[in-house]
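Quick illustration, no need to memorize.
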Amino acid sequence: MDDAETDPAQAELVNVHGTRNVVATGAPVVYYSTDYVFDGAKDAPYVESDEPNPLSVYGRSKLGGEREVREGWIVRSSWLFGWTGKNFVRTMLELGAKQDEVAVVDDQRGAPTFVGHLAEATQEVLERPYGTYHVAAAGECTWAEFAETIFDEAALDCRVRRITTEELGRPAPRPANSVLRSERGAPELPYWREGLRACLARL
């Protein structure tokens, strides 16, 4: 996400032109999008009818990709984590095993979503009409609360020092609130803590 700020052309190439190429095959498309298409100004969870207003290059490129989809399903999700690849859970486990304390942002709220649960729910989305669906874990938390729960569930003796987004100083702006909920009858996912436990069981 931060790399997109310094290389917007590449973000456009992958997320917009790449999607356009897939759509050109003529097959129905499942396009995974992001909570970061919203600006975070809303006090309540975002639903499918809310107007996107991305703050970052990444968010704008993902929204551009959404607009390329003609026949298919746009699945917006948030704060994805799993047992493989680089993600917040794996990063916290690595840091928590080495350090006594980590600094984590406490002024952004979202719904951490386990990729295993998202994959299962996608099968249900395919039984619904084409369109945009919000599919994210039940519940919500801040990144700091998420980190504390990771350490607790993994029995790691590491403290979380709560900081602000400004203190973190990342290149890409993030929405303060990016909690997603569905008004279109999208599949409901388990609570995010359940997803975390399922993920840790596979590590």
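The beta strands are 29-34, 72-77, 80-81, 101-105, 109-110, 113-114, 131-134, 141-142, 159-163.
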